Design the sequence.
């Protein structure tokens, strides 16, 4: 019985060889025609099963596309101009016209790393998003739980002053970091509607107010 | 029956003890990590913490359970996974992790360990795919069989070097696509994998981030987890879970389990770690 089975298996295997060769030749042939870049986009489309609105988050805007540089690539002058201009045009300001708000509210936002995360197709339910700053920046010198992906902002206004130019730069930098440094690692928090103009003004106050712990003597 | 129940109870107790021990060590690890930043010598606190954890890794309990699951007859077809081909022939688990992801002729696709396990558990054991996926990540109420199987299969490549061949053209395509996806920025935070994993010595909050563009760091990251026992989750987590968690932090929708995107990124990372000696399951925060 065992001999028969072995024979059958061997026969089956022998028969399978030309078939395997055929298939491997086929996939070899197919593989040589695959454009990996469009293949990547196809994979992104197949990777998520949320609502169309949420799935849209994985679709790149033109600036994100440009900023997805591979290790052997660098930005061309045209790309730099495109990303910077798009970023500058994206900035809007609080209705009040004031670019600095309440530094105490800003302090809460800066330490808060939550907001907009999706679990089982649902966005987390929160009164507001955090500003995520401490995920990457040391800002309050006494804050222990701060990351270092971005530069330290300790003593922000002690170093830069708090002139109108500094305040405007700070506001616009948080609103859309790519207006000043195209494709920097920092998220475009205002332009992506993660923070409201008023919340950004609160964070600006936190960074620049002389009373804020950031500028403690 | 009684004996197995007794053994199960003992195992549970041991699991709890080990979990507690791991928590104490995690605390020690996190305290030591600040110091370790400036020190790279083998005597630094982080290395000592890692060594202590490695000597009594709670993940070993998942490895043992995974081994039992692999060899027991289970599922509607009451079959073991001893005919499951992980790339080296039916039932061969030794060295299987080291060469995954790879191309499989029966599915005509490149698969990572977890997508391959799904195929085997559905085809051989008759489990329903949707049911397996719904239980892919263990909770305190329900263990995940996949997490245990991955711990076992991963550990069965210990002391072997990562050795992804990319000999099949579709494996090459998977690698190249994974590389593009690693640098692809999207979502409300404009993140790519690269945003957090492209420089050495970076942290998000207090969490160290391996630099996946540096050979030694990616080798260390891939060969010591995933699978890894995750202290804050009290269970072994897998690579699919890690990618899913990164996706969540990036504010992208829930990543489909065993999606081509996840396999592509894993192919890119695992190939980049070739040559690194495997030591699984790892231990993480």
Sequence:
């Amino acid at each position: 019985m065992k001999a028969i089975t072995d024979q059958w298996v061997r026969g089956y295997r022998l028969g399978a060889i030309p078939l395997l060769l055929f298939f491997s030749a086929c996939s070899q042939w197919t593989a040589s025609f695959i454009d990996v870049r469009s293949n990547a986009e196809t994979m992104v489309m197949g990777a998520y099963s949320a609502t169309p609105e949420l799935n849209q988050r994985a679709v790149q805007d033109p600036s994100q596309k440009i900023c997805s540089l591979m290790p052997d690539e660098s930005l061309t002058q045209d790309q730099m101009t495109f990303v910077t201009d798009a970023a500058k045009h994206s900035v809007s300001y609080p209705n009040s016209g004031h670019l600095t708000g309440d530094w105490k509210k800003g302090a809460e936002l800066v330490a808060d790393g939550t907001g907009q995360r999706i679990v089982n197709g649902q966005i987390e339910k929160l009164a507001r998003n955090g500003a995520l700053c401490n995920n990457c920046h040391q800002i309050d010198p006494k804050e222990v739980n701060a990351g270092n992906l971005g530069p330290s902002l300790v003593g922000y206004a002690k170093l830069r002053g708090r002139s109108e130019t500094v305040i405007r730069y700070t506001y616009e930098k948080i609103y859309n970091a790519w207006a000043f440094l195209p494709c920097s690692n920092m998220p475009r928090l205002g332009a992506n509607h993660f923070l409201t103009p008023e919340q950004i003004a609160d964070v600006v106050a936190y960074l620049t107010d002389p009373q804020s712990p950031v500028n403690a003597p | 029956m009684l004996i197995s129940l007794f053994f199960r109870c003992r195992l549970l107790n041991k699991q709890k003890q080990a979990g507690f021990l791991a928590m104490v060590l995690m605390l020690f690890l996190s305290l030591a990590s600040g110091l370790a930043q400036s020190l790279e010598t083998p005597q630094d606190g982080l290395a000592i913490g890692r060594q202590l954890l490695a000597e009594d890794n709670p993940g070993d309990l998942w490895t043992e359970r995974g081994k039992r699951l692999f060899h027991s007859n289970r599922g509607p077809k009451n079959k073991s996974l001893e005919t499951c081909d992980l790339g080296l022939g039916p039932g061969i688990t030794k060295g299987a992790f080291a060469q995954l992801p790879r191309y499989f002729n029966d599915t005509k696709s490149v698969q990572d360990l977890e997508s391959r396990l799904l195929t085997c558990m559905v085809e051989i054991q008759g489990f329903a795919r949707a049911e397996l996926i719904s239980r892919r990540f263990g909770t305190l109420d329900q263990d995940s069989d996949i997490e245990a199987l991955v711990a076992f299969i991963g550990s069965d490549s210990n002391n072997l070097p990562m050795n992804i061949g990319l000999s099949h053209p579709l494996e090459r395509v998977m690698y190249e696509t994974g590389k593009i996806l690693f640098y692809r920025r999207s979502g409300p935070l404009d993140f790519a994998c690269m945003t957090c994993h492209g420089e050495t010595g970076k942290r998000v909050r207090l969490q160290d981030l391996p630099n996946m563009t540096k050979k030694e760091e990616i080798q260390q990251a891939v060969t010591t987890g995933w699978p890894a026992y995750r202290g804050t989750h009290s269970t072994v987590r897998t690579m699919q879970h890690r990618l899913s968690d990164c996706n969540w932090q990036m504010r992208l929708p829930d990543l489909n389990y065993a999606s081509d995107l996840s396999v592509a990124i894993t192919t890119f990372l695992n190939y980049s770690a070739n040559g690194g000696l495997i030591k699984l399951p790892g231990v993480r925060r």
Chain B has two domains: 1-56, 57-284. Strands of chain B lie at 102-104, 109-111, 202-204, 207-209, 228-230, 235-237, 282-284.
